[in-house]
Each structure stands twice: as C-alpha cells, then as structure tokens.
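Self-study notes.
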Amino acid sequence: MSAARLGLDALAVGLALSLNRWVRILTNPIAARLYERFPAGALVAVALALAVLSTAAYALPGWLAVFLGARLVWGFSWSLLRLGSLLSAIEGGTGRAGKALGEMRAVYGLGFVAGALYAPFAVESWGWEMACVVAAALTLGLGLPPVLLARRWRRGMEFPGADADRVSIWHPRLAAVFAVAALQYSLYSGLLAVAGGLRVAELFPQGGALLAVLVPATIIAAAFVLTQRLSQVLWTPVAGRLADRALPATFVGATVAAVAAMSGLALVRDATAFVAFGALAFFAGITSIVAVELALAHRSTDADRPRVLATYNSWADIGAAAGALGGGAFALAGTDVAIMAGATIAALTIPLWRFGSAAGLMRGGPSFT
C-alpha cells in the first residue's frame, strides 16, 4: 500500500514501521515483570485483546496519532505474546525444549507467510480500512482458542525466596550470549535480506536464469526472500531437535555453514547458485538462533527465566533494527562488501558463544559447551 493512499508521507510510514520494534525495548522488561507477578494465562488474554484493538485501529491511518498509538500498543502486545510463547515452549517442552522452540517458530513462520499473502489481496479487494477490520476479526477468531486453552496457566506467579538465586543479566558471560543474539538478528532479520536484495539488483538488472528458466530480477529477489520464510516454517522443528541432541555442535556447525553460505553469496554470479546460497544462509542462521534460545533455557530457572528471555528479546530487537540500517550502510561500499561483512559478523559469534557458554555463568551450573 503506497504512502499516498494511506494519507501518510514517507517519514510517517518509516516511523510507523519501526515504532513497534523500538518500543519493545521498553516493554520487554515490563512483560517480564508481569509474567513474574500475574497468572500467565490472563496475560496472554490481555495480549490478544490489545492485538485485536491495535489491528482494528490501523484502519484510521489518516489519524496519525491514533495510528502511531496503535503501533505502540501492538509493540506491547507482541512483547507479551513473544515472551509467553518462549516460556510456554521451554517450560512445557517436557525435556525437549529445543523441539518445542522449533515448533513455536514454525507456527510464527506460518503466520508471517499468511499475513504476507493476505495483505495485498485484501487491500486491493476491500480497501485498507476493511482489510484492517477483517484482520482484527481473524486475529480474534484464530487467537481465542489458544487463549482459552491457556486460561489456567499460572506459571507467572512470584517464586518465594527466589531473589537470592537470580542471575544478573549483566553477568559478562550472559551478556556475551545476548550479544550473539543481537548479532544474529542483525544478520538474518536485517543485513542479509537488505544486502541480498541489493545484490540481486546489481547482478541481475535484466533478470537471470533460475533453474534454467529466464526470469526477471523481481522473481530472483522473491525466491531469495522466500527461502527465509521456508527456513522459518519448514526447518525450525528440525533445528530444535538437532539442538536438543547436541547443542554446542548445532550452534557451531550452523554458524560455520552460514559463514560459508554468505561467502558464496558474495562470489557467485549465477542466479540459481545465489538463491541456493541464500537458502543455506537463512536455514543455518535460524538453526543457530534456536540453539541460542535453548542455551538460555538451560541457563535460567523458573524464577528468573522471564527476565532473562525478555532481555534476550530486547537485544534481538535492537539487532534486527540495526541490521537493516547496517546492510544499507555497508552496501554503499559494495553489495559484496556488505555480504562479506555479514559473514565476518557471523564468524565473530563463535568466540562470543564460547565465552558465554563456559562454566560458571550462573550459580556454578554446568556449561553448555
């Protein structure tokens, strides 16, 4: 939907698109405190209500204050929903938290794909306002059954005597794992998508042969981005199972594969090979992300897990927001430079992981190396 049709100028559109991510840096810690003090099932219901209301409010883009306010509310709703999903997967995983985390991410991926398919057709068929109202109704209809299932979930109550057993989120080793998360999200949710799209435009301005079929550059770019969505939907359950079986090997192996894939992206000139290397980078990247989430699950207790995971979410949000900007900035020196910068950043996560996963992180617990 163009800015003109929404009645917004380009600056307002950029602000609206980024606002809910930046506000989550503030709302993620609030979500953690709420999950520590109140029944989790009730918080999930509140999050759904806020999501429905904020989505319906998008139907008023001409009322800029209302529109931006809805983005803020949605940011808070997502803080509650994402933290609740992580807690549910980890604590309900019955010894296989990696598998549960992977399946949770697959459901998220399906939602992203459904939204990407719904939006253009709905807007063109019904107009922006009705598309938003229907989206709000779908959010309510599809979200209500899980909310009803979770209504008795009460893990979020305060844990007596737990304060003495809490880990500091500023512990150097834990901060190193958070830094890994920020770098991962900056790459796989920002820099790689931006630099990859620019690389397609540079290499294939007149199109190229994709699986021996001549297609325009837009199709090559779409295929490249599609591999990211496929990794989120099809691969994350497998990634979770791999992490359950061999956590350190999964992280290191996936990261090495991602570095190799991004190096290939910077070197190849064939469209099919470019998309294939992009797929490997995204599949390996999401595997390493699931591994980090499982590592944090192992290194937190029921009492401090909301706070640890909320901090992880904030670092991830900062990384994703900075990654898109970084991709464009690096690309000023060349799209191959931007992609190789991504490969270098991915390689740097391995020593950070090694430091952060060493023994002695919390309460003398075992390492996950």
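Second protein, same conventions, sequence then structure:
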Amino acid sequence: MKEKCEYMSIDLLLDFESQALFSIFTYLKENPGFHDINEISEQVGFEKRTTSKYLERLSVLSNEVLKKIGVVPLTTSERNYQITQTNYAANKELSLAIYHISMKIDLVESLLLIKENTMDSLMDKYNLSYSTLKKDVYEVRDYLKEANIDLHIRNGELVLSGLEPTIRLFFLSFFWQLYGGYGQPFNIENSPEKNFIFEKLSFLLSDQIDPITKVQYDYLVDITLIRYQSDHRIENNELPVESILIGTKFVQHFHFITEENVSAYTNFKDELYFMLLFLQSKMVFYRNNTFFQEMKKYHKEIDSNIYQANQFFIQNIGLLFNQFQFDYDELEKELYVIHTRLLFKSFYNYVPIGEHYNLYPEDMAI
C-alpha cells in the first residue's frame, strides 16, 4: 500500500485567489490565441465581474514579471487576452507569482529557507492577527501530517519534527513541484561539504543519470546542506539497515569513500549515504545497468540466499514468461527492481521522478 504523501500536491495549499488565477492562467496557456472576457468567464465558470477582477490581478502580476525578466507573459489587446505557450520563462515566473500569493505556500518555503520562524515575525510579514495566523499554521500542520512530519508551535516558534530523510525528501518534492528545475531557489554558496558531495558522487552524475535527476540532485544537495548546517542531521537509525548495507557495498566498490576522507566532516558519512540512496533510487527507476550489476555482485558476495532465490525465480518461474519473449537480462533486471524497491520502500515513497519516462504506474507519483 502506498504512502499518502505520494499524492500530496502543493495545490492543496492554494488559497481561493490563487486557485482562481490559476484557472484563468491555465485556460489561456492551453488555448492559443486571444480570448475575450465572455469566453474566459464561460470556460472557467466565473461571473464576468469576477473574471474581470482576476484578469486585472493577473495583468498586475504579468507587469511585475516584465520588470523582472523583460518579457510579458500576458498580452492584452482591446480587452482580449493571450498567453503564449512558448514563453516558458515568463510563464514560469507568472506561475511562481501566483503560487506565492498563497500564504501557506510561502510559509512552507520559509520552514526550510528561514532559520527561525516565530509567530511574531510571521504576523508582521503577512499582516495577520495571531488567531488568523494560527489557523493557517494548523492547516499547514495538517498538510505536513500526510507526509509523516509534525509541525509545532514551541515557545512562539514554528518547529518541524520527524525523520530527517523524510523531511528532506518532502522539501525536495515541494520545491520540485513549485520550481520544477527553473531557477535556483536555495542560493547556497559553495562550501567544503558541498564540493565534497559533488566530488565524491560525480561519477554517478555523468551519462548514467538522466538530466532531470541531475537537477533534482542539485536541489537535494542544497536542501541537505541547509538542514545539516542548521544542526538537523541524519541519525544512525534513520536510514533502513538494508539500505545502509547496500549503500556501503556500493560505495566500497567504487573506492571513493573511506574513513580517512570523511573524517574531516563530523557525522557526514550518513549524509553521503543519504545522497547515495537518492541516486540509487533513480538508477532503479530508470533500470540503470551499472546499478544492477553492482546489486548482483552484492547479492552474490554478501547475501547468497537472496542471490540464489533470484536465480531460482529466473530459471524456473521466469520460464513461464518465455511465451512473451522476454529477454533474460531484462527479466532479471525487473526482478532486482522489485527486490530493491521493497528494500527501499519507505525511501522511495518520497522521491520525485521525471515525467518523461514510461515507468510502472506506482513509480509515477511525486
């Protein structure tokens, strides 16, 4: 059974104004050409007066995008409106502007990007009373509960609690849905830790990993460093034992992590294993040959029972599939996909994936 958080969409945090603006924005973007207010009202289900109000708001946001990047996403001509699909950057900027109208979206972002979020500072930021802000915070709290993350008001400050890998992968999913690889939302400067992570795992970021994963990995490195540098670190018992074993073996094979070269970074080995597991999860999703070769070696050398069981499956039960003309290597790979997904199940449920791949249905959630 899949975790609830697989279905979590950041759109659940949108207020009514943002939802209305997105209805108009999406309709115009998906239907090329100019459209008048009557047509837009009919298609989005608003009264003309309401549609007019939101079109004016959309025009204001569009002008802000123009000032920022020099391109206007919303074109107006004699009270007819158009959004050009090919203006990707302008449309993305407008989408982000609409998202950030919703206070709850901005608040979740702040839980990662701002070190201290006090109720007093948030009341000033959003110009809200304590009771109104508390209501919104509780709605965010209920949203986070679906990802097995708790949000508390402790001594007047908002505090997250939960498994650290879960918190980081939640933020990866959140920021990936929000930004989708557009821009760099974290503004983390290079540091010895960041350079160390990229140096030691760089061999996995070559042609073995798809371009979408490279961007997501960049996001996750920054999220990891933000949490790590604010003393939110992965504890010894927070990664599955089986994952650590496979991670250790995978690391040892490539001879790039030793006790000596991680000793300069206190408690950083678990951080590296966490990043490694993310890349390994992508290798499973995309049926990466290098990973499965290492998995086979791991099972054969370290856990012969698993290896023998897999061989039995392929040699016997697998014969039943011969009528479908399955390739032996491909059949073996699919078995390792199933086995590895079971080992990493709690980890996989939070890993967002690329949208342009033909995967199993259960792989398609964010």
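Instructor comment on the second fold: The first strand starts at residue 35 and ends at 36.
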